[in-house]
Write a structure and sequence with these properties.
This protein is α+β, with helices and mostly antiparallel strands. It contains 32 helices and 15 strands. The strands form 2 sheets. Strands 1, 4, 5, 6, 7, 8, 9, 10, 11, 12, 13, 14 and 15 form a 13-stranded mixed sheet that branches.
Length: about 850
């Protein structure tokens, strides 16, 4: 059903274009990144303040000789900000620090940050406000940062106390403040992402790198968010933004990715000493210095050989093992972005293991501090180090547990089996090579290694170099073959496993019941079903198949109710028998069957079983062979088409999986804005969202202007007969809030003309839940209850308005029913339907929904 708001026409080639202006065009995805690059460069060309500021920044740096390694010491004391500068009365330094950077790399990095954040702000906020936000954010952010350092020092925090004598110059404090203020003027999608990106970047630089610059940047981000919140409060009440199911996964994935990138940043950054960088070498192993090797050689010959082996490890391609932990996190973040339960489970296990490891070390330290080289006066500091290192994985683990229901997509058994075979095979071969070949060259170890020693040291092969010696007494290689085994057996395993995992995560379609979903789709394409039968391919469904495999029913079990997704599908003459077959299947399992959103044929088959039924929606079907937008009744549609032509709005076909980033990003942004404005979650079950667009068989029709701005989008699902689409069903509908107002009429009319040219017989505008056309038949008591429920939901979701909107296209009305076996089960069925439509409704959203009902 549709909600307000690929290839081309279906599984085959893009739709034909009979006549320009009459039917939609097919989008050109030949160079998808070119359109994205053009969209990014256009604002830069029209950002005089940003370009002027960057010119001043580089000119000042060049004139003062600061481009290479920053301002000279005597100048640094005059223009840099910090606790000493303010304590000595240099009040201008919060502003003067805006015009210098500490070195060439910082100049380049600052330029990138300014272009990314200040350029769009200049366009949306104006030059005056952008300049004020940049200067004001720089001053306020540096004052907040310096104040935090001073307070931390007074409280005895070692890290902040170590910053009290530092001075800093950087324009990124003001740039981050500008970005934070800008976020309040962005769409809901980018509002969240920009804020998360700014906060994550600031926290990584502050907590991992730990320089004064990082603390000041964090102050700038906080200042910008605070100022933006105050400005927003003047425009209306503050309330949290609600994200869609898909966007919530993206945000969690970004947090996990940031947790992986932080340690890498700290290792690459010079002299990182942030509180989270204490044990960074465990995340990203570092090469031992020449002094480390010399110290080892001074102890014993074996220690010397071990140090040489580790140093040689870092001088070979095997050094990639040094970053295996963050790389695993990044791969799991990709799986989380796609909503995979496997990625969620692995991420939880990884963080649990990390927490357990540090808990073990903390326990070991408390039992024997001298083994860690800690003086009695340093015990409290060591405990603090361990606690700080455990904090991040604990927070990420809590986030994963809280968002568990977001990650419900399961891989097919075949995919899981293939992944297990590849990873298991790589592990077996690598282990066999290490032990077998190692035993053959056992004299190349110090001391000579037997089978037992090789097996005991096997675990060290699959751990980063920093873990050597923590868990096993690994055999030290001294010969060429032994060194090759030591360096590459673990690397080959991880390389094969991570590539296999990434490929598995990037599969285009995943389902709760993935293997049955493949079989069900084949049956649907071959024999067809009702106008809503393509909904059976969506995730969340399980499938019942008749004994002969010629018909099927898609359903989901909520509590003890087996709620179907539309009619049975498959061989037409056997669909009625499938109703009784599915009922027996449910009875054997103690479930209450309920056929939801079904047509008259399924209703009649259910009534022959003694079931009852009630109308729950109204399907609207537009015949296409004789369609012509002539006469007074089509006036609204003709007006939309003519107005779109005058304003330069055209319709373009796209397949969402193949569309360029410039297009998909706008679609996501429009959808997220709709969700955020509602303050309530998107409805599920028979109402599609962004996840359902990501299907090559679904066609997307966009209303775009001359600048390729997307004003509206509709998606169309195929209705199959004998292997080919005989019609198309409308699903996803969204319109840009400030876009072309007649975009929905324009898109539906354009789609109808295009489908007519292709030979399709009908177009379904889908059903509007809890809305129906008035009839002379007196409603029964349950029907009156549903009509009242539709009336109560109207201010929130507008189903009746949607049905009235569809009347513009002169459709044929076809009632859709809910068939159920026992009136006593209606309370349970009602709860199941509500849970199916709103599976992610939170308590806060539930209260807001009740309040809107009351209003």
């Amino acid at each position: 059903m549709s909600a307000p708001g690929g290839d081309g026409p279906g599984p085959g080639a893009p739709p034909p274009v009979p006549a320009p202006g009459d039917v939609p065009e097919t989008g050109d995805s030949t160079h998808p990144w070119r359109a994205t690059l053009d969209r990014l460069l256009v604002p830069v060309r029209h950002a005089p303040f940003t370009l002027g500021f960057l010119a001043v920044l580089w000119i000042v740096g060049a004139v003062t000789g600061s481009l290479g390694s920053g301002p000279r010491p005597h100048r640094m004391e005059r223009i840099a900000v910090g606790v000493p500068a303010l304590a000595e009365g240099r009040w201008w330094t919060p502003a003067s620090s805006l015009l210098w950077c500490p070195g060439l790399g910082a100049y380049i990095g600052s330029t990138v940050i300014v272009l990314l954040l200040v350029t769009p702000a200049e366009r949306r906020l104006g030059v005056a406000r952008t300049a004020a936000a940049l200067l004001g954010g720089q001053i306020l952010g540096t004052l907040l940062g310096v104040g935090a350092v001073r307070l931390g020092s007074l409280a005895g925090e070692q890290w902040l106390d170590s910053l009290t004598q530092d001075l800093s110059v950087t324009p990124t404090v003001g740039a981050l403040a500008v970005g934070a203020v800008l976020s309040y003027r962005l769409t809901a999608l980018w509002r969240r992402r920009v804020r998360l990106g700014i906060v994550a970047f600031s926290l990584v630089m502050a907590l991992y790198v730990g320089h004064l610059q990082g603390v000041l940047r964090l102050g700038g981000a906080v200042a910008g968010l605070a100022v933006g919140a105050l400005l927003l409060r003047r425009r209306g009440p503050l309330r949290p933004l609600h994200s869609s199911h898909t966007e919530a996964r993206v945000l969690v994935a970004l947090v996990v990715a940031a947790a992986a990138i932080g340690p890498i940043t700290a290792i690459l950054y010079k002299d990182a000493y942030g509180p989270f960088s204490t044990f960074n070498e465990l995340y990203v192993s570092t090469r031992p210095s020449a002094q480390d090797v010399a110290d080892a050689c001074a102890q014993s010959a074996r220690d010397c050989h071990a140090a040489d082996a580790v140093r040689g490890f870092y001088d070979s391609p095997a050094v990639a093992m040094a970053v295996v932990v963050p790389v695993v996190l990044l791969v799991l973040a990709e799986g989380l972005r796609r909503g995979l339960r496997l990625a969620w489970s692995l991420a939880v296990l990884l963080h649990l293991g990390w927490i357990a490891l540090f808990a073990y070390w903390l326990h070991d330290f408390l039992g024997n501090p001298s083994a860690y080289g800690a003086e009695p006066t340093e015990h409290a500091d060591y405990v603090q180090y361990f606690a700080e290192q455990m904090l991040l994985p604990v927070l990420v683990l809590l986030l994963l547990l809280v968002t568990r229901q977001r990650f419900d997509l399961r891989l097919p058994r075949s995919a899981l089996g293939g992944l297990a075979a590849v990873a298991g095979g790589a592990l077996l071969l690598a282990s066999a090579a290490y032990v077998g070949i190692g035993w053959a060259v056992r004299d190349q170890y110090d001391p000579e290694a037997g089978i037992g020693r090789l097996l005991s040291g096997l675990v060290s092969e699959y751990l980063p170099p920093a873990f050597l010696g923590y868990f096993t007494d690994w055999p030290v290689p001294v010969g060429g073959t032994a060194e090759t085994l030591y360096r590459y057996c673990g690397l080959v395993f991880w390389l094969v496993t991570l590539i296999a995992l990434l490929i598995t995560f990037r599969r285009p379609r995943l389902h709760t019941d993935a293997d049955a979903a493949v079989r069900a789709r084949e049956l649907l394409v071959a024999h067809g079903g009702s106008t809503l039968s393509y909904l059976t391919t969506w995730d969340g469904n399980y499938y019942w198949f008749a004994a002969n495999g010629r018909t099927a029913v898609a359903y989901r079990v909520i509590a003890t109710v087996a709620l179907t997704t539309g009619d049975p599908f498959g061989v037409p003459e056997e669909r009625a028998d499938a109703v009784a077959g599915f009922a027996r299947h449910c009875d054997e399992r103690g479930w209450t069957p309920c056929f939801y959103s079904v047509g008259a044929a399924t209703r009649e088959a259910a009534e022959r079983l003694g079931w009852r039924s009630v109308q729950v929606a109204e399907d609207t079907v537009v015949p296409l062979p004789d369609l012509a937008f002539t006469g007074k009744k089509w006036q609204d549609v003709r007006t939309a088409l003519n107005k779109a032509k005058k304003e330069g709005i055209t319709a373009e076909w796209w397949s969402f999986p193949d569309a360029p980033v410039a297009v998909t990003d706008q679609i996501r942004s429009i959808s997220e804005e709709w969700v955020a404005d509602k303050g309530l979650p998107e409805m599920d079950f028979t109402l599609g969202g962004l996840d359902e667009l990501d299907d090559p068989a679904v066609r997307c029709l966009l209303a775009v202007d001359a600048e390729h701005t997307v004003h509206g989008i509709t998606s169309w699902m195929p209705v199959y007969e004998e292997g080919t689409p005989a019609g198309w069903t409308l699903d996803f509908m969204r319109r840009r809030a400030d876009g072309f107002r007649g975009s929905m009429e324009f898109l539906i009319a354009s789609a109808a003309l295009g489908f007519k040219e292709e030979g399709a017989r009908f177009l379904s505008l889908s059903g509007a839940p809890l809305a129906r056309k008035a009839t002379e038949e007196p409603p029964v008591a349950l029907q009156r209850v549903l009509d009242y429920g539709g009336k109560m939901l109207e201010p929130v979701y507008g189903f009746r308005s949607l049905l009235n909107f569809k009347a513009k296209f002169q459709p044929q009305y076809r009632p859709m029913y809910m068939a159920y076996p026992d009136p006593a089960a209606l309370p349970a069925i009602t709860r199941a339907v509500a849970k199916a439509y709103l599976p992610h409704l939170t308590a806060v959203q539930g209260v807001r929904l009740v309040r809107q009902f009351s209003a």
